[in-house]
Amino acid sequence: MPFRIKRYYGYVIATMIALITPFITIGGNHIFLLSFDKKQLQLMGVAFDMQELYLMPFLLMLLFIGIFAATAIGGRAFCGWACPQTIFRVIYRDLIETKLLGLRKKINNKQKEPNYKKNAGKRILAILIWSALALIAAADFIWYFVPPEDFFSYIQNPTEHSITIGLLLGIAGFLIYDIVFLKEDFCIYVCPYSRVQSVLYDDNTFQAIYDPHRGGDIYDEQKEKVVFKQKDLADENNECTTCQHCVTVCPTHIDIRKGTQLECINCLECVDACTTVMGKLGKESLVQWSSVNEIHENKKTKLLRKTTYMYGAAIIAIFVMLFVMGGKKENMLLNVNKTTQLYRVKADNEVTNSYYMLFQNTQSKKHTFKLEIVGEYADKFKIKRFKSVTINPKKLVKELVILSTKEKLVDDNTKDTPLKVMMKAYAVEDPENIVVFREMTFFYPRADKLK
After folding, report:
1. Is this structure's pTM higher than 0.85?
2. Are residues 235 and 350 both part of a single domain?
3. From 17-21, 196-200, 371-375, 409-413, the region with the lowest mean pLDDT
4. How far is Cα 201 from Cα 291, in angstroms, rounded to an integer?
5. 208, 310, 390, 413: which is deepest, by most CB within 10 A?
6. Per residue in 288-314, pLDDT tens?
7. Which residues span the domain enclosing 235?
8. In this structure, are 169 and 222 located in the same domain?
9. 296/346 same-domain check
10. CB 35, CB 146: distance < 8 Å
11. Are residue 283 and residue 406 in the same domain, yes or no?
């Protein structure tokens, strides 16, 4: 099966995953959603609020290190086999322009641009078809930040949700310009990944690579093309027929016979083209999915090597950190802020400190929350102005809480003394699981302030 057909299967799978993922929920939470509206990260059915976004750096590290690892092993395989830019270009160029409208004669000739002036009607129709698909792609991107159930509600009231509508149209507009006009120049000049790849490759990296030992040198050491006539190919060591199929099929317009180039996205179209031509001659392709070691050094490609071990260890470490951090998730949120008044001393030497507490019920059910003091000061303080608070799902409530004591906790004439008091907050319905502990600072006055 040609690599091109295998890529198509990969594109279908990647597209289905991208479209379906935003709709999958576990226990009412999405498997991935970074909601700025709800100020939440939902990951594998677990909701993490803004205070718990310490997970995001680990997710980003996993993404980038994963792509770097894939590049070290398989070159720019992500670019050719899973990148949205490549998938969108294949849809527009190969499906819409070539198969549906016939603007291009053949899929395997990507160097020659169609005569758009002569076929202006088909050109406009192709852009309109892609525009509709671009809107779907833009909506799919937004669904990872605005859940689909909210998104479809928002677009019914566009005047009230102008930012969401603006993002939708803005992203779609960019995709239209990118895919129709910018094309593979995005991969060559805009995408930073092409610049990074050169430092990630080694002699064992799989890539589309031309075998000069069989085909002959097409370029010299200065990358200047060696001009030779067909009769010069009589030498049995020069199997290249100079048919140029590997060049005309390349979407980024390079000649793979020149060697490794940053423009190559490892789509392996050139491998398919050479396989077809050389197959008719009963020979193996001169362009292969192989490595420098295998082609130039006659050594076996090593998948398990120092580089892959290092990337593997890094990815495992990130997964462990994600698991550990995710296990520390609190099933309710409580923010404690001291009021501007440091303390208050009453006539009977009762000392009070006041706090604003923001309770947030992160669960899908209504809960009643209570407070109690624990630790070494459990018997020395009382909680005033607060008994309990009932909060609806995903809602938050701000309460004033006063801590009071009549005990003589400190005897110091020189300064006020901060004391660390441990507060326990819990849901009455499930005190074992929905519980958090917060250390609060209680300021006790110096001795001359007391009677």
Report:
1. no
2. no
3. 196-200
4. 10
5. 208
6. 999 999 988 888 988 888 989 999 999
7. 1-329
8. yes
9. no
10. yes
11. no
